[in-house]
Amino acid sequence: MKLSTPHQLIALSVLGIAAATFSGASCAAVNADAASALAKKSDCLKCHAIDKDKKASSYKKIAEKYKGKADAEAKLIDVLTKAPKVKQQDGTEEEHKVVATKDAAEIKNLIGWILAQ
């Protein structure tokens, strides 16, 4: 069956959108090695651990807190870039350290890694 030109354009548009959607999903994959390296470089692991509370909540607990929340990334960007006061496990408050990069992609990758725990 031969499609008319308008139908061909529609079919190509649908294929293009599908390709962009699937390629975007693979680009959004977390680079765990880069995120872990940034966490170490930024001294995040002095207060946080993956699966147990230290001075601050574990990344697993943070991921549970933000699971399914549309504003999770935005809130964590603020914490990692604006140094707000945060509550520690012992109830005291302390200024959160700023992550050791200004690169938005690196920060989003780190947040993706934290939320994937």
Give a short summary of the structure:
With 117 residues, the chain is mainly α. It has helices spanning 5-27, 32-41, 59-66, 72-82, 104-115, and strands at 85-87, 93-95. The chain has a two-stranded antiparallel sheet with strand order 1-2.
Report on the architecture of this protein:
This protein is mostly helical and 117 residues long. The protein has 2 domains: 1-30; 31-115, Orthogonal Bundle (Cytochrome Bc1 Complex, Chain D, domain 2), CATH 1.10.760.10. 55% of the residues lie in helices and 5% in strands. It has helices at residues 5-27, 32-41, 59-66, 72-82, 104-115; strands at residues 85-87, 93-95. A two-stranded antiparallel sheet has the order 1-2. A hairpin with a 5-residue loop joins strand 1 and strand 2 (93-95). Helix 2 packs across helix 5 (104-115) and helix 4 (72-82) crosses helix 5 (104-115). It is elongated, with a radius of gyration of 20 Å. The termini are far apart.
